[in-house]
Amino acid sequence: MIPLVERYRDRLPLGPDDPVITLGEGSTPLLPARRLGEQLGVELWLKWEGSNPTGSFKDRGMTVAVSRAVAAGAEAVICASTGNTAASAAAYGARAGLPAVVLQPRGAVALGKLAQARAVGARVLEVRGSFDEALAAARALADRGTHVLVNSLNPDRVQGQKTAAFEIVEELGRTPDVLALPYGGGGNTRAYALGFKELGELPRLVAGAAERRRETIATAIRISEPAHRAEAEQAYAQSGGEAVPLADDAIVAAWRSLARDEGLFCEPASAAGLAAVIARRPPPGSVVVCVLTGHGLKDAEAVDRIADAPVTVDPDPDAIAEAARR
User: Fold this and answer.
1) CA–CA separation, 272 vs 73, rounded Å?
2) Which pLDDT does position 304 carry in this prediction?
3) Which residues partner with 210 through β-bridges?
4) pLDDT at 259
5) Which of 54, 87, 102, 225 is the most buried (most CB within 10 A)?
């Protein structure tokens, strides 16, 4: 597989001699969702970013950010994270031979994501405070020149993430009418808008945001103050789109539909884009792409709260058949 950076080097902030730190990111599937599309009356596609190396869309930006950090002679990378950025920064830091420091809000990160960061040797520090406070601390340390910040405030991250827009247009052969995605910090909305603008046409951008950002079950978008709020809101306005506030019940219902109707196990936050489409039905026949940002194993403990529990049966065919009918 050709690394994402090499596929789009002419559109990325990398010099011809810059190193490429890659784990085989990008080229993720764009899957037709026929059953859900029929229910909604649209041509529905799912951009399955959970197939990236660490299981989320963050890898697109991290390959560029860490490659640039190495080219600049960085000694270490640092991020604040609710999970996916931590896993990605840790993995790409390890790949580059750079120490990675992860600041996480205490008690607010899914265990699957934390396990990834710990497994590859990141220094994981729990901050007694919110994500916003952790990010402020990470920025302050980076300003000292000892660490490179690899949150999406690093413009190299946004540049790498815009490549998903290129892939969508390549596979569809056109720009979709609607692009739907989760809204946490707003960096991914900004990146998609940038990518589509570079291609000359911006779809209607519809983002799913948790009504209760500080407490939502969708841990990946549990961010009370989006770092890219201004840029995201500008993108919604320019595209005729919007950010849709969603109750957790709506996000969970979309998560179940993706799993049971289309066979895709994503983390709850990844279903927010579909939930926004359900809430704001596009015109019949619209071509809609929903971005599923992270794999379900990122937040496997959520399954215990929102999926059916296993049923215990005796090893008897009649008992099994009876239990299966219920």
Assistant:
1) 38
2) 79
3) 246
4) 96
5) 87
